[in-house]
Automatic annotation (TrEMBL):
This is Intraflagellar transport protein 25 homolog. Its main location: other. Residues 18-122 form the F5/8 type C domain. The keyword Calcium applies. Keywords: Calcium, Cell projection, Cilium, Metal-binding. Component of the IFT complex B, at least composed of IFT20, IFT22, IFT25, IFT27, IFT46, IFT52, TRAF3IP1/IFT54, IFT57, IFT74, IFT80, IFT81, and IFT88. Interacts with IFT27. Interacts with IFT88. Component of the IFT complex B required for sonic hedgehog/SHH signaling. May mediate transport of SHH components: required for the export of SMO and PTCH1 receptors out of the cilium and the accumulation of GLI2 at the ciliary tip in response to activation of the SHH pathway, suggesting it is involved in the dynamic transport of SHH signaling molecules within the cilium. Not required for ciliary assembly. Its role in intraflagellar transport is mainly seen in tissues rich in ciliated cells such as kidney and testis. Essential for male fertility, spermiogenesis and sperm flagella formation. The keyword Glycoprotein does not apply.
Amino acid sequence: MRKNDLCLSSEGAEVILATSSDEKHPPENMIDGNPETFWTTTGMFPQEFIICFHKHVRIERLIIQSYFVRTLKIEKSTSKEPVDFEPWIERDLVHTEGQLQNEEIMARDGHATYLRFIIISAFDHFASVHSVSAEGITVSSLS
């Protein structure tokens, strides 16, 4: 079975919530497949965003490219609506001066319909997320 980047908008994924939005750097930029675009936070922490897959997926590996993110928590839900999130992964990222943080996470028990990413803290007043990739497979539709 072919593994896809389940987080791409071209695969049907959608950012359904983001706690901040800058019109020049909207949340959709994280999943558009373009390495030149990104989402930026606007001020205080925590900040969060939710990605909806519009299907049941099994994630095997996550790759998050970001800048200035210090602590990242990821929760998942297998519900049809964005509710009943359960803790899944929490990471302290390393500050990388002048280059993107490239955090690769091998996932265990990666069944989800939604992922909630919570940026608990950052190394600066602002942080950015350039891409979120989820390598895995579609398990079934939501119907």
